[in-house]
Design brief:
The chain is mostly helical and 76 residues long. The protein is built from three helices and no strands. It is elongated.
Length: 76
């Protein structure tokens, strides 16, 4: 297993990461310390909620793009 990092608060970074690495599994981690998450509440809320939505939207768009590219191919 190899770890790759991306910023869930940055949609363009997330897009590049997903389309470059093409992972088959993803594990989400948050800030490294609980204290930090309480000290920067707005960032934590954005990361946990909106970041997850950004990620799911990127996965959905990647799946749709992959399906469109495979429609024109003939498999023998």
């Amino acid at each position: 297993m190899k770890l790759h990092y991306t910023d869930l608060t940055d949609a363009s970074s997330l897009h590049r990461w997903l389309h470059t690495i093409l992972p088959n599994k993803v594990y989400k981690a948050s800030q490294s310390h609980v204290t930090v998450s309480f000290e920067i509440l707005e960032y934590t809320a954005d990361l946990v909620t909106t970041g997850a939505l950004r990620f799911l939207e990127e996965v959905r768009s990647h799946i749709l793009a992959t399906r469109r590219s495979h429609r024109g191919q003939v498999f023998l």
